[in-house]
Amino acid sequence: MKRIMATFLLLLTVVCWAQSRLIDDFVQEGKATQEMRSGGMNAAHHSLPIGSRPMVKNNANGKEIEVTIIGRIPASQDRVIDITRDAARAIEIGSEGTITLYFYRPPAAEAAPLVTESVLPAPKPEVVAVLPAEPKPVPPEPPATSPPVSEPPKPVTVAAPPEPKKPIQITIHNHIPPANTPAEREPPAPPPVRPLAPPPAAPVAQPPIPPPAAPIVQQPSPVSTVRVMPGLPDPNSGKYFNLQVGAFSSPSGAAQALRQVQNAGFDAIQEQSGSFYRVLAVSVLARDVYFASQRLGVFGFSEIWIRE
């Protein structure tokens, strides 16, 4: 594993050295286009490494500028490099001008000399003067204090007792005349006599209110013969039919007929067709149609239409 890593590092070093020699000896002459939309001193080349900084020289006036390679262009014999408009204005080149593309490195004489440790002068020893230490100030001793002299006690003044107050005499004069004697008092007035209220009158018995009379319902007269239109169905068919007892132009007449059908014991409905109201007895079995028509005839219906 160590041999593989050493071989890889050696190959990488050789490739980098060869590329640097190739760049140092690189010189190219031709046309330069101005199609890059980026600003600044940038350019695009077909083979120079990205980030390299070659020199571009205008062959007409000798002005040159350093550009940075940030893009690629296809290799072509018509142009050498594609530069930005800012770089073209800097060297004052037109669309038909020719340039020389090369790398510039300063000569070895112009390089700054290396500074080694032997060239640096030895540091001079510094002379440090030793000053004597200043004596610390001794704080003065506090003076001896004499014991405090006690002051003589102050005389106490005793206040004289207050004189006793004289009692205040209050004389009350009673100006209320004495009450009359029992003989002189007037007898009390007798209480007023209230008139006696008359006795309450006996309640007058009112005649009982008769209950309201029951509404008279006019019973329809029974019909002896009921016509079944268009005819009686087959009693063995097992079908159910709706029996229409009539069509009425007023809602009140249809409502009265609906109640009569319900009183006859049938399920009844009311449906509207235009300006007429039809009343039907629903879900009557085929074998019961004849008996149902006779039952409806008792309630005053003389004609029945059979509807499926």
Entry summary:
The protein has four helices and twelve strands, in the order αββββββαβββαββαβ.
Largest sheet: 7 strands, mixed
- Low-confidence segments, ≥5 residues, pLDDT <50? 105-120
The CATH class name of the domain at 2-102 reads Mainly Beta
Alpha-carbon Rg, integer? 72 Å
Give the helix/strand layout.
Layout: H1 2-24, E1 27-36, E2 42-44, E3 55-58, E4 64-66, E5 68-71, E6 81-84, H2 85-91, E7 98-102, E8 227-229, E9 240-248, H3 251-263, E10 268-273, E11 276-285, H4 289-298, E12 303-307
Parallel strand pairs: 1-6, 2-5, 8-12
Antiparallel strand pairs: 1-7, 2-6, 3-4, 3-7, 9-11, 9-12, 10-11
Write up what this structure looks like.
The structure is a single chain. Among the domains are: 2-102, Beta Barrel (Barwin-like endoglucanases); 227-307, Sporulation related repeat (Alpha-Beta Plaits, 2-Layer Sandwich), CATH 3.30.70. The model is unreliable at 105-120 (pLDDT under 50). With 308 residues, it is α+β, with helices and mostly antiparallel strands. The longest helix is centred in the N-terminal third of the chain and has 23 residues, at 2-24. It contains four helices and twelve strands. It is flat. A seven-stranded mixed β-sheet has the order 4-3-7-1-6-2-5, with helices on one face. A five-stranded mixed β-sheet has the order 8-12-9-11-10, covered by helices on one side.
